[in-house]
Amino acid sequence: MKFKWIFFFAIFVSAAVFLFLNSRPNSYRVYNTFYIDRLSDPNPTQYFTYEGLYSQQTAERFTDSLKGLLESKNVLGLALEKSGMENSQVTRRQLEKSLSVRKTGPQVLYLEVKGTEDDTKVVEGLTGVIEEYINEVNSESGKQIIFKKVSNEPVIETVNKYSMLAALSTFLIVLISAISLIEIKKYLDS
After folding, report:
1. Same domain for 86 and 102?
2. What is the mean pLDDT of the chain?
3. pTM for the complete prediction?
4. Maximum CA extent, the chain
5. Is 97 in the same domain as 154?
6. How many structural domains comprise the chain?
7. Torsions phi, psi for 147 (to 5 deg)
8. Are 11 and 48 part of one and the same domain?
9. What is the mean pLDDT of each run of 10 residues along the chain (190 residues)?
10. Where are the beta strands (DSSP E) in the chain?
11. Cβ density class 90-101: b for 16+ within 10 Å, e for less
12. Which of 61, 91, 103, 186 has the least CB density, counted as fewest CB within 10 Å?
């Protein structure tokens, strides 16, 4: 008879966990990927030069620089302004916590913001600031840095809550814990 109540209690607790997780607002990932390259000078002579290699190395190092820029507080502030959001210390700090910039290849940057669907504006703002910076670099130097977005619009994905898995895990933990406590109590009483 005791085990029947334990079973119902475990179902109740896991249902409460399931309902709690599903009542929370959805969380989103907004991301885009960028490819950075540099045009190499055409080889005017018949002899081999290392211009292609130098162009690739320049693009790789420029990718590192862009990663650092995307993580800097100044650029985050400019991106917030560009996206029409408040540029305060609090919003910059929130953006810093939700922002992830990774170099996924020698010349590839992955930019992700975790939060709400409105973060699309932030990703577009960051992209715009970087595009302006690259245009400025290209206008000041003879070398052409190429900045390509893999997709024109940032991608939005809903983050899975795993509420069913959490409810099942809760059910098993409560059931095993309660039965174990009853059996330990029986053992100690005898």
Report:
1. yes
2. 83
3. 0.70
4. 97
5. yes
6. 2
7. -125, 110
8. no
9. 77 86 82 86 65 78 87 88 86 87 88 84 88 85 80 84 83 87 84
10. 28-38, 99-105, 108-115, 145-149, 155-158
11. eebeebeebbeb
12. 186
